[in-house]
Design a protein that fits this description.
The protein has 765 residues and is of the alpha/beta class. It is built from 10 helices and 44 strands. Helix 1 packs antiparallel against helix 2 (17-45), helix 3 runs parallel beside helix 7 and helix 7 (226-238) crosses helix 8.
Length: 765
């Protein structure tokens, strides 16, 4: 190319020194032009792609179950999926690099971190920069993340995230008290830290939904947490404050901070302040999402102002934001049909939008139409300016802005919001929200939310959220219940921490109180279960003949069974996998006990269980079994005396039960034991009623066991013995050496003597 240009310039300017200088200048400009052209061509060939590539991973963790005493969350899993989805759609994360982890244990979560670490290590240096985004939604407090009954401390969690084999580590934590993880390093606000692909940024960033001493809240209206919902809306494009079509985490965080604070200032949980801690070095600006990478999009015109709600075809709220007039706003959304609702100061407008792949659909003020009062209220009885979809707000609006109506029909139906009394001979049914009462001779049905009372001889049904009382002679059903259900059969399908059920059979996912013959709760009964049979996941108190629970504080009954008991089990038979509290019963069985069970028979997995063969001062070989704990064990013993020549057994048998304690706990130890033995000279089929003789033998033993090797020891000690004639004619037992004292009290004979024993012990002692 250079030779061609020289020939061209020679033919134009001819030969000569001054002409050669002119040609050289022209040639230099031409070469510069070609270089610039090539740079532009390369940029045009790969628009938006930087010289340094990014390999990005998302680990989205959800834990609805925070363990005993904590309400089961409803939307942690959906929040994690929403966060992962927006980064997959708009953040350059491939499907194979998305890890959704649900209800993990600490070990399970660490195993996933290790697996991602191995993948990162293999690709280190091959694809430019590697980023890992860790998201957690669930329960937490100042100690750490609550994964079921386990706690993953903030220190250990932060240490594990810091150790990931990636250039940039970003953790987003949506949980109560999550600000504790940023406080550990003195989290402060710093300039924007997300960097683009051409930067050399390295380090970590932690974003939390609240400060250390604040509650992070979720909303039934949003079907998710306030913070994650706001953050995802910001990543969809609402947080693009610069208008460059890209959203940095700094922009998304600022948007989520303002939206979360605004939404929670008036909630019962109180204002929620997201926080952040960053330690990143380098230059540039990392982009979290790029609106140009989506297959479809929505542009809100500059003339639109107000709060915007965008719902998909399934009526799920996918984005919410406040739109100011004066500039347009772009949102990245998957192709599909959407409903866009715009709330102004005193009106409500809606429009339907269908997004298609490869196209940005613009929405203007002219596209919106006012929502008629008939669509959301009954006959204009509710002011159309009241548009909050929150159930409590709708009930409050209905209560203050509508008139009370009473109707009576064979089948009384209401298709619109209703405040009043419905009476049907056979059936009362409301399709929309209702405040008031339903009464009929067969059944009542509330298809939508209801606040009030249902009374029927046969059945009551509240399909969604019911606040109030259901009273029937047959059965009561509610999706979510806030109040009492009274009837033979009561059923609640969704989490209802304030529900009270009283009947013959109660079934619920969760409730506060259940009182019936049979109580079944899948998740939690926060206060009490009282009945003949109680079955629950987690409960505070169970009182019945048979109690079964995964986790319980207190169980009182004839038979108690629990995987874990925190306080007390009181019953004839108590069974627990782990007991941090005390078991009181005739028979106590526990896998791991932190406190010694109190009972006649105690079988403890981490306690004492041993077998001893011994001989005593009566020439009586004995076999005994010890089980319980070192502090309190139960002993069972059987023996039969030998004659003086040791060649034949006498017809004297002893068997009994005793209680004892060890000094020195496990291994080599001393022990004190009381044993009550029944003595007879006949046994089994040889015993006849008319000649059956029996004595009582009381024995106190002070001895010990010296461990030889693990599981084997030598036992020996001294005893004090008192034998009474019981219902026999003579006392059958005495020491072979005849060193005893005969007593007689009002004709009742007794023998007293000191003794000794020696033997060998096997087991855990």
């Amino acid at each position: 190319m250079k030779k061609v240009l020289i020939k061209v310039f020679d033919s134009v300017v001819g030969a000569g020194p001054w002409k050669s200088m002119i040609g050289l200048c022209l040639l230099s400009f031409a070469m510069l032009f070609l270089m610039v052209g090539r740079i532009h061509a390369a940029a045009a060939a790969a628009p938006g792609l930087p010289s340094t590539t990014i390999d990005r991973y998302v680990i989205a963790i959800s834990a609805n179950n925070g363990g005993k005493g904590r309400p089961v969350l409803r939307y942690a899993e959906s929040d994690a999926k929403s966060f992962a989805a927006v980064l997959k759609d708009m953040g350059g994360v491939s499907q194979k690099n998305v890890y959704l982890i649900q209800e993990p244990s600490v070990a399970f979560l660490n195993a996933h971190f290790d697996n991602v670490d191995k993948i990162l290590a293999k690709g280190k240096g091959k694809s430019g920069r590697e980023e890992v985004l860790v998201y957690y939604s669930g329960h937490a407090d100042e100690k750490g993340l609550h994964l079921g009954e386990e706690t993953y401390s903030w220190q250990e969690f932060r240490k594990r995230v810091d150790a990931l084999n990636a250039d940039v580590k970003i953790a987003v934590i949506d949980a109560c008290g999550s600000g504790a993880i940023t406080r550990a390093k003195g989290g402060v606000a710093v300039p924007a830290f997300m960097v683009d692909q051409s930067s050399d940024m390295k380090g970590y960033a932690f974003i939390t939904s609240s400060t250390q001493d604040e509650a992070s809240q979720e909303s039934d209206k949003l079907r998710g947490s306030f913070f994650t919902h706001s953050l995802v809306s910001g990543l969809r494009g609402a947080g693009d404050l610069s208008g460059d079509g890209k959203v940095t985490l700094s922009e998304a965080y600022q948007f989520a901070f303002n939206e979360t604070l605004q939404k929670t200032e008036t909630t019962m949980g109180g204002a929620q302040h997201p926080s952040r801690d960053m330690n990143l070095t380098g230059t540039g600006d990392v982009v979290m999402t790029d609106l140009r990478s989506t297959s479809a999009g929505m542009i809100l015109d500059e003339g639109i102002e107000g709060r915007v709600f965008i719902r998909d075809a399934s009526n799920e709220l996918v984005a919410e934001l406040y739109k100011k007039s004066g500039r347009s706003m772009s949102l990245g959304l998957p192709a599909g049909k959407y409903t866009v609702r715009l709330e102004g100061n005193a009106d409500l407008n809606e429009t339907n939008v269908e997004l298609t792949n490869g196209k940005q659909q613009k929405v203007t003020v002219r596209d919106f139409k006012a929502v008629s009062a008939e669509k959301t209220v009954a006959r204009g009885e509710i002011k159309s300016s009241v548009v909050d979809e929150n159930m409590e707000a709708r009930f409050d609006s209905l209560d203050h802005n509508s008139r009370f109506r009473t109707t009576f029909n064979a089948a009384d139906k209401a298709h619109e919001p209703r405040k009043g009394l419905m009476m049907g001979v056979f059936l009362s049914m409301s399709d929309d929200i209702m405040i008031g009462a339903q009464a009929s001779l067969i059944g009542n049905l509330a298809k939508n939310d209801m606040h009030g009372m249902q009374v029927s001889p046969i059945f009551n049904i509240g399909k969604k959220n019911f606040q109030g009382l259901q009273l029937s002679g047959g059965f009561n059903y509610a999706g979510h219940m806030d109040g009492p259900q009274i009837g033979p059969v009561n059923v609640i399908t969704n989490t209802s921490p304030n529900a009270v059920q009283v009947g013959a059979v109660n079934v619920a996912r969760s409730a506060r109180v259940q009182v019936s013959s049979i109580n079944i709760a899948r998740d939690t009964v926060s206060a009490t279960q009282v009945g003949a049979i109680n079955i629950v996941g987690t409960t505070n108190v169970q009182v019945s003949a048979i109690n079964v629970a995964r986790d319980a504080h207190v169980q009182v009954g004839a038979i108690n069974v629990a995987k874990k008991v925190d306080d007390t089990q009181i019953a004839v038979i108590n069974v627990a996998g782990k007991a941090t509290g005390r078991q009181w019963g005739v028979i106590n069985v526990v896998g791991h006990a932190e406190k010694t069970p109190i009972g006649l028979i105690n079988i403890v997995g981490n306690g004492v269980w041993s077998f001893t063969g011994s001989i005593n001062e009566m020439n009586a070989p004995a076999m005994s079994v010890h089980f319980g704990t070192a502090y309190l064990f139960t002993a069972l013993e059987f023996s039969r005396a030998l004659q003086k020549g040791f060649d034949e057994f006498e017809d004297v048998y002893e068997n009994g039960i005793g209680l004892g304690t060890q000094f020195g706990q496990y291994g080599t130890h001393l022990e004190l034991e009381y044993m009550f033995l029944h003595v007879t000279d006949k046994y089994g089929e040889d015993r006849e009623e008319e000649d059956y003789k029996g004595n009582f033998h009381h024995r106190i033993r002070l001895g010990g066991t010296a461990r030889l090797i693990q599981g084997i020891g030598l036992s020996a000690g001294a005893t004090l013995n008192l034998a009474t004639e019981g219902y026999g004619e003579r006392i059958l037992v005495e020491p072979k050496g005849k060193w005893h004292d005969d007593w007689n009290y009002h004709g009742h004979k007794a023998k007293f003597w000191p003794g000794m024993y020696a033997g060998i012990t096997f087991g855990r002692f």
